[in-house]
Amino acid sequence: xxxxxxxSDFPHNPGEYCTPIVxxxxxISCFSTPFLYEVEGEMIGGNAGDILIMPPGTLIYHGPxxxxxxxxxxxxxxxxxxxxxxxxxxxxxLGRAFHVGDVLLLKKCIARIEEEQLLKRPxxxxxxxxxxxxxxISLHRRFRQQRDLDSPKMRIGVAREAFLRQPEKDWSLQEMxxxxxxxxxxxxxxxxxxxxCSPKADLLEHRLELAKQMLIYNDCTITExxxxxxxxxxxxxxxxxxxxxxxxPSEYRKYIKVEH
Length: 260
Hints:
- This protein is of the alpha+beta class.
- Helices cover 51% and strands 17% of the residues.
- The protein has helices at 81-89, 105-119, 124-149, 152-165, 173-180, 184-195, 199-217, 222-228, 234-245, 249-259, and strands at residues 2-11, 21-22, 26-31, 35-39, 42-46, 51-54, 59-60, 62-64, 72-79.
- The strands form three sheets. The protein has a four-stranded antiparallel beta sheet with strand order 1-9-3-6.
- A hairpin with a 2-residue loop joins strand 4 and strand 5.
- Helix 4 packs across helix 5.
- It is elongated.
- 23% of the residues are buried.
């Protein structure tokens, strides 16, 4: 790998943008502040903690969100066959900002590389190569992890876990969708696709199963069971229970306890 230049916690004056430049090497930066960067003539917003990798031959131009603000970033210009092979094996987004959930991962690496480049102690080239290799692999792993966490399956699962963990709460579809970070219509469509039923139906089924367990193994009153399981009223609980089980909660408790 060939490191051309690098800098850590690099401060810029309020409103200052970097000088627009096209390089024949990779530019990698992590930003400590919100920023704007240019891609094909369009200015795009990035957030604090984001990472930006610009490939060779692309314009490098970025700065603060507001002209009255400053921005701080850590950056490195790097290239070489080893580096390119590493990016092919452990790909990361190029030309657009991305987040990996660890704002210090790249920052620490660049700071250490900057120190090694400055002091040039024995073995510094091998050490910086090793540090860059480890960091790129870690970035790749964390990026994939973040992407998986943001997948529809994962987001639906997080919402389902939330409302099944709190069955006593009067969950609205909007509240469920908010947990998954979807609109209500999108959430319901994805939920049915994943579980074959609506989220409300799934929650009702869970409440019913929980109520059955409480009726068998708990001495709570029918009213208490109804409330703890999130049914709107004891009347609704009894009606729904009988529709599904063919008997009332009281009868179910009596019959099942006799069998046990």
